[in-house]
Amino acid sequence: MRRARRTRMAVAGAGASVLLMVGAAAPGRGPGVDEAGRDPGVPAVGLLVGRVLDEGRGAVRPGGEQCTVDVFRLGMCQGWREERVLATAGGHGVVIPAPLPGGVSHRAAPGTDAGGPLEIAVAEPGQGSLTDVSVTDGHGRHVAGVLGAGGGRWVNVESLRAGESYTVRVGAQDAAGTAVGATLVFRTAPPADGGRLTADFGPRPGTYGAGEIVTAELSRPVPADDGLARTRVEQALEVTSHPRVEGAWHWVDESTLHYRPRTYWPAHTKVSVRSGLDGVEIGEGVYGGPSDGVEFTVADRIEAVTDSAAHTMTVRRNGRVIRTIPVTTGKAGFRTRAGVKVVLRKESKVRMRGDSIGIKKGTSEFYDLPVRYATRVTWSGEYVHAAPWSVEAQGEENVSHGCTGMSTEDAAWFFETVREGDIVEVVNSGGPRMEPFGNGIGDWNMDWPAWQAGSALATTYGAPAPAVPPVPSRLSPIT
After folding, report:
1. Residues 182 and 38 placed together within one structural domain of the fold
2. pTM of the full predicted structure?
3. Phi, psi (5° rounding) for residue 440?
4. Would you say residue 4 lies in a domain?
5. Which residues span the domain enclosing 212?
6. By C-alpha distance, which of 179, 146, 178, 136 is closest to 356?
């Protein structure tokens, strides 16, 4: 099964309103609409979206203690703003503007404070509950959060990033169980002084599969036409590994770089990522700042290759076959993406609904299923998971809506065997090719020459490079 693909939504200008209506008509009181903005005859849930506006006061109390949602509500920290949003059956949502003095209906607000909390809550107890909250930035990175007991409130547990646009997608259900939703966009304020250029590396410390990549998120963009600045940035980013491998950085966009080896990491590799940006002049008046490094290790190389034509998945550990599994993949109209993907995370239970990919309730293709042992491989909703309802088809034909289904026993084994970063490849599916960026880790679908072409350090690969004055921490991307 495959959920609707998430798309980026741009916000014009750093001074844009921190909360925008997306895909809905301008809110207003129409016939049959009450003061809360609801039409009693239409399924909807009122939500409160709370965040901290950046008005020079920050999200830290005078004593240095971080302000939480509850502390803001008690008035102990300034800057808290709540806005009411109506989640509708169409999934777009309507912002209900608060009245402003002098009859003003809208006022541009400062950007959201990246250091402050973000909260999504059901406005009225008993009106409904949250079922899913997804917060992603302009690069597709997800912000971690926790959903409270009963689905009444969601709060981020991972900080936002300064100078970034965020898309919030909220799934909820009303008191009758009807699915509703809202989509919102806001922007965080840039660093107060423009900020020094730093790098935020990923993944987090830990143990990963052989398909994991290194990411570097820069605190400010470096334009593609500034080859000198990009060269200096790459020179200052060091990736070392034991055993040593050949690898390179690739510019995904103006503030994102990915690093990968020419081929998958060898099993049991130790990887260290460091920045030498601090004090380096990147461009006129722009200097690098300090950045925290990261270290991670690579486990056994697990590769799961699904042949959709043969309806089997072959799982190898360090090149040796350890299990062959009968599977079913996407049928006509819902073909599974072909190519290499990487395990993003594991979810023991997931609720999958047909309307998440545009299948109308009441039609023959609609589904609403609790799914166990779900291993996610794309952010748009492609999983390897237990599908006990299709056991007879597994190994024989493709009947899914895009996911790879298998028996509960096999799915439980797969779930316990793989980890984040392990390789999941699909061949002979007839589906679209997995894109390199934006929907998970598709970097391995780009051949090595194309990957090298995305680096500013062309000299490393035998081509002339622009003249670069010496800078501190001159580091080669070949590790």
Report:
1. yes
2. 0.64
3. 125, -150
4. no
5. 199-299+452-461
6. 179
